[in-house]
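Quiz preparation item.
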């Protein structure tokens, strides 16, 4: 394949190829993955180099060599410390309530891996309908007094976005600050005319992850922060289909959260960190005016929660590890929802181990796929989990996009992380762990209602798949890192 290159380019390419091989061997990654990439680079060197650049580099390793990460951590520690100190009683209350339980172990692990601790929410609301969530969000934006920060993986152009843009224009005219960031690749197929109108009106609008070398590492988080006092996160992007299913689906089932109070600082921190990096340090949103105002009673009365976030700058994949700890330490039950099911082996083994130990392990995914290859790959993970005693449900009333986990009917998490390799290891994700039995029951009850619209996958379903379909599913699984 080298004869495809100009003669003068061959020595340059070979030098670059050697450097890549050295970097690949030096990276701290699974040996099997290293060998697979070495095989590709040796036997298809030209194509292999391009594949490695775009989807093979371990940017978690690369990122740790960059100085901006230590700068960002120092900023977060410096600016979040006053908020954490004034809410220290919330952590004290948490450890009294949950001492020696899986909840305490999850919280300790999150704190050890990132700049995050227990914070109290004045209120927390669960939304399982896009119609209800966006209606409330539009109300909150209409009543905003100082600023609106929005971050979405996908920003479409449709009836919903027209309404949102109209509200934002009005708030800009009133003198509010409006900042929007969206994932470049996730939103690439949608017209940007409305976002450009917002720019003209005075909003700051930025595409995120525009570096082509990081194309495999997207920003999948969904965050809205209003006046530092109200925050939203969960599975819903900015688009009409998240309300009514759009042209492709009869319905769209998703889950989102609305928080108020001190806990909003955890979401604003993530927005501010990403904005700071994209602005190359020229704009600092960690200032107190963007954070919740002090509340002297919140630490003693608020709902206790903790946000775990992961991305290329986080070497621990803390959101994934929190799931592993939760599943591994569950006493009675662990119920998980995700549209996709292509887990890495460590998490998959945790689910199987829990099921074998007699824990009620239930997993729910979409039965109406938006992407055929990930849906096919998911089928290859069913048999072992079923054999171990787990249960699998496929939601058939429309597209299913919820990302939740409920442990022992006592604690739960809602957020943006799917149960696939892309979310678990590549994307920027977040999960909100809520340490409140009443709220956990709401998420559990929502799961139970969803089961009524599901097909229960059986071993007979799995074993009745023909040889051609089985081969197709196994072939799809080979591309799990890029699905």
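Solution:
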């Amino acid at each position: 394949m080298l004869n495809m290159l100009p003669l003068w380019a061959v020595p340059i390419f070979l030098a670059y190829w050697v450097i890549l091989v050295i970097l690949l061997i030096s990276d701290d990654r699974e040996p099997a993955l290293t060998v697979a990439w070495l095989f590709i680079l040796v036997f298809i060197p030209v194509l292999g180099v391009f594949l490695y650049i775009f989807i093979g580099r371990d940017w978690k390793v690369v990122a740790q060599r960059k100085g901006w990460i230590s700068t960002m951590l120092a900023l977060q520690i410096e600016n979040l410390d006053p908020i954490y100190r004034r809410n220290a009683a919330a952590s004290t209350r948490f450890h009294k309530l949950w001492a020696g339980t899986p909840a305490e172990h999850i919280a300790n692990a999150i704190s050890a891996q990132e700049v995050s601790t227990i914070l109290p929410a004045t209120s927390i609301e669960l939304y399982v309908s896009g119609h209800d969530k966006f209606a409330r969000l539009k109300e909150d934006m209409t009543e905003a007094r100082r600023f609106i920060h929005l971050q979405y993986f996908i920003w479409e152009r449709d009836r919903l976005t027209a309404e949102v843009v109209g509200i934002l224009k009005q708030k800009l005219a009133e003198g509010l600050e409006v900042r929007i960031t969206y994932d470049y690749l996730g939103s690439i197929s949608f017209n940007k005319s409305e976002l450009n109108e917002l720019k003209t009106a005075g909003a700051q609008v930025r595409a995120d992850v525009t570096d082509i070398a990081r194309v495999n590492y997207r920003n999948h988080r969904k965050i809205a922060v209003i006046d530092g006092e109200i925050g939203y996160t969960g599975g819903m992007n900015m688009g009409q289909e998240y309300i009514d299913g759009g042209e492709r689906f009869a319905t769209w089932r998703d889950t989102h959260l609305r928080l108020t109070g001190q806990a909003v600082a955890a979401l604003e921190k993530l927005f501010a960190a990403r904005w700071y990096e994209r602005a190359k340090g020229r704009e600092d949103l960690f200032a107190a005016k963007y954070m919740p105002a002090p509340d002297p009673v919140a630490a003693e009365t608020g709902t206790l929660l903790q946000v775990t976030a992961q991305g290329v700058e986080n070497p621990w994949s803390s959101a994934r590890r929190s799931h592993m700890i939760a599943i591994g330490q569950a006493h009675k039950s662990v119920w998980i929802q995700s549209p996709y099911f292509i887990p890495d082996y460590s998490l998959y083994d945790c689910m199987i181990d829990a099921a074998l130990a007699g824990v009620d392990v239930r997993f729910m995914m979409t039965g109406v796929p938006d992407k055929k290859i990930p849906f096919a790959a998911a089928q290859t993970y069913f048999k072992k989990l079923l054999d171990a005693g787990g249960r699998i449900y496929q939601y058939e009333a429309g597209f299913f996009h919820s990302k939740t986990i409920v442990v022992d009917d006592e604690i739960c998490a809602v957020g943006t992380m799917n149960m696939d390799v892309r979310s678990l290891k590549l994307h920027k994700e977040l999960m909100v762990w809520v340490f409140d039995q009443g709220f956990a029951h709401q998420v559990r009850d929502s799961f139970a209602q969803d089961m009524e619209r599901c097909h229960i996958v059986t071993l007979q379903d799995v074993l009745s798949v023909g040889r051609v379909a089985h081969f197709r599913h196994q072939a799809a699984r080979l591309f799990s890192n890029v699905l």
